[in-house]
Amino acid sequence: MFPFGREYDGLLVHKLSKMAGQASPRIVVASAVRELAKYVQRQMPKASVENVVDYNAETFPSAIQSDATLAKRLQDAEVLLGDGKTIITCIRAGATPKLKWAHSTWAGVEGIMEAFNFQKPHDDFILTRPGHGFGDLMSEYVIGQIIARERDFEGIRLKQQKREWDKSYDYFRPLFTLSIGILGYGAIGKEVAKKCKAMGMKVWAVNRYQNTTPSPDVDEFRGMDALGEVLRNCDYVCSILPHTPATQDLLSGDVLKQCQEKKSVLINIGRGSVIRDESLIKAVREGWIGGAILDVFNEEPLPADSELWSLPNIVITPHVSGPSLPDQVAKTFVDNLKLYNSGKPMNNVVDWNKGY
């Protein structure tokens, strides 16, 4: 295992400081995000940026072996901006021997973690992931879904199709009367809390350990050991948890039975592995929860024969709450690139011990 915490931070600063003052590193972009290299180059005109997205995730591994030109382009890369799959492929194939830093375009890095069994591939390798860019998008998704549900926009649309003027839709729960429990108070969770608080909601935030630093966006902080209290007190429970051994099946079994008094609605924009499908289905059928808004699943795409598709009070979206938009991905990368070039600690460095 590798050191983390203060010792790790010191090691990281030491390594980065040795890089400071050197010529701008050679950056290779290997991503399916459209025109990502152009956005990076636009924000850093003097940077050496090379695009290798001529290959998709399926053909990229074989191309590394068969295309000598591609192999050469990767061989000299010090910095790799790529999707999770291309980062895994490059490292496994030994295609990037000079690699010092890889930045993933994906918010979740569990695929990379599992590919290397939660062990750093080599000493000098630093892995970072996006931060606030996804927070803006995913907080919009959360707020949009809550408003749509509380005001029943779908029902109003159906009335419109029938040419019915139904004033009963005057009655709904305003957001300022509602509470939300946010499971996972990282970069994305903080943005969700900020947006929800701006709408007047009471915000509970749950982290691995209870946060003792006050925030104007959070009314109640709790550690994961107080999860039950949050489930019992919140109208909405929003999971933004990553996939780690500690979070897998966290809400499975009868855990959601604690939501039955409030009839909480579960929003999952983190990872599907936080709850088994059968546990979620049972929670809905038993009336423990008022419904669920699901953007992530244990298996993606969600199989056509999954019972989740037809379950009442379930909203299913195809993992679109936080798409990788080129301008935002480029911005988070370039912000880190400036820190990297100056020898300063970067943002959103992945902790290989924690898995995120």
UniProtKB/TrEMBL annotation:
It comes from the Eukaryota. It comes from Littorina saxatilis. GO terms for molecular function: NAD binding; oxidoreductase activity. Keywords: NAD, Oxidoreductase. This is D-isomer specific 2-hydroxyacid dehydrogenase NAD-binding domain-containing protein. Residues 144-321 form the D-isomer specific 2-hydroxyacid dehydrogenase NAD-binding domain. The lineage of its organism: Eukaryota, Metazoa, Spiralia, Lophotrochozoa, Mollusca. InterPro entries: D-isomer_DH_NAD-bd (IPR006140), NAD(P)-bd_dom_sf (IPR036291).
